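Hi V.,

You were right to ask for the full record rather than a summary. Here it is.
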Amino acid sequence: MPTVTPEQIELLRRIDTPTVCNAVEKLDIRPPTDGHLGAEVRCLLPELGIMVGYAVTARFGSTVRGVQHSMEPYWRMWDNLEASPQPGVLVTEEVGPDPGRGCILGDGMATVARRLGGIGVVSNTAVRDIAGIRALGGFHVFGLGLVPSHGNFGLVDAGTSVTVSGVSVAPGDIVHGDENGVVVFPAAHVADVIRLAHEIIAFEADIFGYFRAPDFSLAGLKRRLGA
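Predicted structure:
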């Protein structure tokens, strides 16, 4: 896994997710339509601010009927989280037929995740026990919403690439999320993303200053942007 320093993680934590998306787009490593999760995966605890961590992946089958899941992938997921660079983010894919009725975790699993270095979860399914999760302090939740039941809880795999909201996520990818949503990118690009994000922040500070200036005009804006 590429080396990412704690200082770089902290720098990313000071940058909002839309700016990170803009920075990744400048790298031209994928189409601008890819890499960010759709609006159905919502930030359920927006008061926590920005989440940055390494993806720890798993696939769940909580809406698969008539199957008793093996516990082996469950324990492997926790092993992977404990062994992951920290902070870790559980990124999970519900493979059953009805993700909107599924459940990735409640306050019990969130507590275990916190003890093993996890700071959040991103999933194409739901969570429960949101009051208990909120009480943990600092455990981010991105998912479809809330459900009261764990369904047919169980994992079908852990530690492989998963697909969440059409985005393929590999173990060790950088997961960045805030109230706007989530973007994922390879850890090898962290330094460039930080550099480009700072350039974007400086440019936007200048252009927004002009938006608010007494002498603002459309003609002047066109000149500034080279139109």
